[in-house]
Amino acid sequence: MLDIALVSLIQDMSEKAGVEGTIQYWIRVGENLAKRMGKEAYMGWPSFNVALREGRTAFSIEGNVAALTDLAITDVDGDVVGYIYALEKCVFEPTILRVRYSVGQLPRADKQIADEYNITYRNIAVCNFCIIHVKFREEVAKNITIAGQPLEALHLANRGFTGDTKIDEENLNKIGINKEYVRSLLRNYACVFALVMKGARLKGEVNEE
Amino acid sequence: MIQRKIEEKEDLLDNPMVDIATYLFLEDIADKQGAAGMNNYLMSLAYSLARSMPEEEYTDWDSFVEAIVKGESILSAFEKVNAVSKYCMVTVESPFLRGWKEYTKRIGEFPKIHKDVAEYYNSRTTPTAIETGDIIIQTYRKAAAEKITVEGKKVNVAHIATVSPDGSKKIAPEEWLPILLEKANITRTQMNMILRNNAGVWIVYPTQ
Asked: Does B61 reach chain A within 8 Å, measured CB to CB?
């Protein structure tokens, strides 16, 4: 029931604190959740990817995350500095279905909050829950080190419950991945993101300079 | 309704991230507005939830109880309920148990505010809450009952006792208990027997 209560709270909250106020609350929840999960350290990418597959990292709270190890991200020197990851099922999907079966439909606030976030912050949210999700991943990445280097999360694409998609072309350019290729990944996954070594000299970023 | 569908379909189980995020969301509200502010939000969201549910009418009491037990009434949309007498209902498992387990597994011990807010609620509304979730479900049950008519009469809900996932119990005050138990048609010993392996006892009865 907790998740359905949350949906109800979002509607209530956006009426009392406004849509922008709710976004602020959500961003703080993403930060707090990551902070409360603690820090992690791995020897190298293989050990991190195994931990992810076995559900031992903070990212595992989201559900099944696939490490697309055929999609290694390299820096300007050709060294592997990250990988692309994909979440199999949107974390909010069961809640959407449960609301559908118990209440009827999602409150208006869900879309209003996502739309406002897309205008004010970053055009990547397909539902209100993406806000916490995006912030959570960014903060969790900072708490994980691989070979002593902290990570950085780059959001690439999301697919909503009704099939709508959002793709962050700026981040795609940074890691040099084709937009259509990421779109094709969304057929099988709910959202796609990259984890890279923080401060890595990515090809896209160097080209921009 | 939802209970049956959840049992049938694993896909409908809520995601741990959403459950934990909800608790953190509430803690964030409590940080800014204290137990009183958090209590207002909890009650308000339960009222909103009940408002968004459809109205129900039943021609007789037996079919109403049958709908509750089958999970077809809005009173059992979020929890599995058994009837032990005409008016006495038993919640088998807390609807917040999954979220509670995920939080304690992935985050750690619940902060004290979840119990403080329940104390605030107990002192002002109904004294049978142990933690945050109880405020939501108890307020929801009362508000949802107002949308139900049986044999042309409105129904009321009153709470007798609650058991937390950690085993702690909260029973209605001594001055109320005999009246509630009489309405429930169970003895104090039977109530204690029920509380051993269930999450709550409450009554639903027609208005006079």
From this structure: no
Number of neighbours of residue B10 by Cβ within 10 angstroms: 8
Q: How far does B68 lie from chain A, in Å, by closest CA?
A: 14
Q: Return the pLDDT at B160.
A: 97
The CA distance from B61 to the nearest CA of chain A, in Å, is 23
Instruction: Report ipTM for this prediction.
Output: 0.72
Asked if the Cβ–Cβ distance from B14 to A98 is below 8 Å, we say yes
Closest alpha carbon to B166 in B106, B117, B96: B96
Evaluate the CA torsion angle B22, A126, A160, B107 in order and state its sign: negative
Residues B60-66: contacts with CB under 8 Å, at least 24 apart: B60/B150, B60/B151, B61/B86, B61/B150, B61/B151, B61/B206, B64/B148, B64/B150, B64/B155
> How many structural domains is chain B composed of?
1
Residue B47's domain comprises 2-206
Nearest-by-Cβ selection for A3 from B22, B29, B108? B22
Token couple for B102:
């995920």
Residue of A nearest to B100 (CA): A2
Residues of chain B contacting A129 with CB distance shorter than 8 Å: 18, 21
CB contacts < 8 A, A to B, total 125
Given a contact cutoff of 8 angstroms between Cβ atoms, the answer to whether B160 and B128 are in contact is yes
Bridge partners of B90, per DSSP, are B82, B201
* A30 close to A139: Cβ distance less than 8 angstroms: yes
Cβ of A4 and B53 within 8 Å? no
- For the stretch B13-45, pLDDT in tens is 778 888 898 899 889 889 888 999 999 989 998
List chain A pLDDT tens, one digit each, 209 residues. Answer: 888 888 888 888 888 888 998 899 889 989 999 998 889 999 999 999 999 989 899 998 888 999 998 878 999 888 999 999 999 988 888 888 888 878 877 888 888 999 999 999 999 999 988 999 899 999 999 999 999 999 999 999 999 888 889 999 999 999 988 899 999 999 999 999 999 999 888 877 766 65
Per-residue model confidence (pLDDT) at position B119:
95
